[in-house]
Amino acid sequence: MKSLIQFISRLLISLIFLVLGIQKLLHFAQTEATITQHGLPMAKFCAAGAIFLEIVGGLALILGIKAKPVALVLAVYLVPTTLIFHGHIGDPAMLIQFLKNLAVIGGLLLIYAFGAGDITLDKTLKIGKS
Question: Does residue 130 fall inside a structural domain?
């Protein structure tokens, strides 16, 4: 039962990365414009990096491929992302996004600290620890 709950948790946390990564890809120009509006340099590079990280990281978490390091990388990625894009917490909508990202970071850190469980591709293929 514990492994099933860990799998479902990874799946639910991963969905936000997959869905938003795909949306960023499908609306690349808008993603780039948003990054530019927030004053970041090399917006195309940043957009491509975010898309790659969100889609590949989300898939890796779901499948349980190196889930612990992937969870840590995604948590670290979310810190500046949260501060830059959702840091205006005086706006109620931004406060919700800010708090949502903090909750996701918390979930990712739990995966990092306690592992991905037994339902992982790593364990199926006997590839190190997940």
Answer: no
Contact 85, 33 (CB under 8 A): no
- The predicted-structure confidence for 53-84, as pLDDT tens digits, reads as follows 999 999 999 999 999 999 999 999 999 999 99
Q: Helix or strand or coil: residue 98? A: helix
pTM: predicted TM-score of the whole model, two decimal places: 0.93
Residue 23, token pair as written in the block: 């949306």
Domain residue limits at 84? 2-124
Q: What single letter denotes the amino acid at residue 82?
A: T
CA–CA dist 84, 97 (Å, integer): 12
43 close to 36: Cβ distance less than 8 angstroms:
yes
Residue 67: inside a domain, yes or no? yes
pLDDT of 3-29, one tens digit each? 899 999 999 999 999 999 999 999 999
Q: How many domains does the chain have?
A: 1
